[in-house]
Design brief:
The chain starts with 6 loop residues before the first helix and ends with a helix. The radius of gyration is 25 Å and the shape is elongated. A two-stranded antiparallel ribbon has the order 1-2. It has helices at about 5-15, 20-30, 35-55, 60-70, 80, 100-120, 130-145, and strands at about 75, 95-100. It is mainly α. Helices cover about 65% and strands about 5% of the residues.
């Protein structure tokens, strides 16, 4: 049985304490580029679109767009989720739940895409193929303006 003062125990804690900035950046990119985050963000976007669609029953398109899709944090009103056409009710339902808005979900999806590209996909071309690809890319950028 190893004693508490064994060098191997302290060596691992010293290695953890002296994490390099590149290893921290790699860890952050792994978190932001994960597939679980992608699926979660798409599920949140699905809920947001569903709530926005149901809210069009009593709001116009501009109001729905401002409330759900261009805001960073959207307040999902209970009245939006239970329109009168589905379940008739006398008084409007009170209350709201804060959910991520379209701007926040879109920004996080963009960060997720870039982080996934950096961590998972690598350039396999080299030499002439690489230079030809970069030249075609630059040519397309220059001529598209």
């Amino acid at each position: 049985m190893a004693s508490v003062s064994s060098p191997s125990v302290f060596a691992s804690s010293r290695e953890k304490a002296s994490a390099t900035p590149s290893s921290i950046l790699a860890s952050v990119l792994q978190v932001f580029g994960s597939l679980k985050l992608t699926v979660t963000l798409f599920a949140m976007a699905l809920v947001l679109v569903f709530a926005g669609t149901l809210a069009q029953h009593h709001l116009n398109m501009l109001e729905v767009k401002q409330r759900y899709f261009t805001s960073w944090v959207a307040m999902m009103h209970f009245e939006d989720l239970v329109p009168y056409a589905f379940i008739p009710h006398e008084n409007p339902l009170r209350g709201a739940i804060p959910i991520p808005g379209g701007a926040l979900i879109g920004a996080l999806l963009m960060i997720n895409l870039v982080a996934a590209k950096i961590t998972r996909f690598h350039v396999h071309a080299s030499g002439t193929r690489l230079y030809a690809g970069i030249t075609a890319l630059v040519f397309g950028l220059v001529t598209s303006r």
